[in-house]
Amino acid sequence: MISCLLGVVFTINALPDYRFCFAVISLIFLVGAFNTYNSIFDIKVDTINKPNRPLQKKQITIKEARIFSISLYSLALITGFFINQMFFIIVLVSAILTFLYSFKKIGLKKRFLVGILAVNFFYMTLCFLSGWSLYPNNPIPIYPLIFLFLFGFGPAILKDVEDLEGDKKYNIQSFPVIFGCTKTIKLASFFVIYSFILLLIFINENIFPQKYLLALLTLPLMMRTFYKIYNNLNKKELLKKEYHFVLLYLILTEIILISITI
Fold identical between 1-138 and 141-262? Predict the structure, then answer.
């Protein structure tokens, strides 16, 4: 939802109007539908990776989860329809993408690189564009979009480290399965660092004002967390905790960007 707000702020350099509330509701439905449908696809994998989820504990059935997911997708599209045409198109594209990500016969998630690109494109690009779509007569903020996509790619890759055991058993072609955990962490660090280097280039070229240097405050925090994960790969609970810190620093970076843009 922060990405949506970023899309608004970078588009109009101000806070959004009341339509943003409905946009957030639509995106909440969409993310809920995606997570629920993906949990059906991952039911065997999550028996190993996330055994405490409702499907694994048999608190709900697959049929109930499927109905719930379809209902949330429908609510996301209906809400989006009443916002404007461009927002509805973005929600529709997002719904199709997230459905194909988990749909068994296509299973983008199982395909190396394609799955992680699809997830990152949804959360960091389409959610950002959903904010822009509230004011579609304005140009798309391309440079922030490039930065956010690269910045989000690191944490997206890193998430699969804690799921290595189940992904490996059920042939999910994630970065840790293909390259191993240590190389994956190094690659995730590279994308985060490279995104900040790109931000510095944008500042140097006067694309962004110098106040955007404040966003660099989160870089050492993220690198410290990556280092802790690197040195504790055998401690699953610690990995989960430290990954939450990575997400926290990602959100903090987005909040900093919002506060210095409005």
Answer: no
Tell me the three state secondary structure of residue 54. coil
Q: 62-81 and 19-41 are packed helices; what angle lies between their axes, rounded to 10 degrees?
A: 160
Q: What is the pTM for the complete model shown?
A: 0.92
Instruction: Kindly list the averaged pLDDT for each block of 10 residues, start to end, along the chain of length 262.
Output: 93 94 97 92 82 83 93 97 96 95 81 88 94 96 95 91 82 87 93 96 95 95 92 80 91 95 90
User: Tokens at residue 42, please?
Assistant: 């991952």
CATH architecture of 141-262: Up-down Bundle (1.20)
> Options 3.20.170.30, 1.10.357.140, 3.40.50.1000, 1.10.8.60; which CATH number does 1-138 get?
1.10.357.140
Write down the domain spans for the chain: 1-138, 141-262
- What does the buried/exposed string (b/e) look like for 67-77 if buried means 16 or more CB atoms within 10 Å of the residue's CB? ebbeebbebbb
Dihedrals φ, ψ of 261, to 5°? -95, -35
What is the Cα–Cα distance from 84 to 89, expressed in whole angstroms? 9
Give the CA distances from residue 15 to residues 88, 121, 127, 259, in Å, rounded to whole numbers and listed in that order.
21, 24, 16, 10
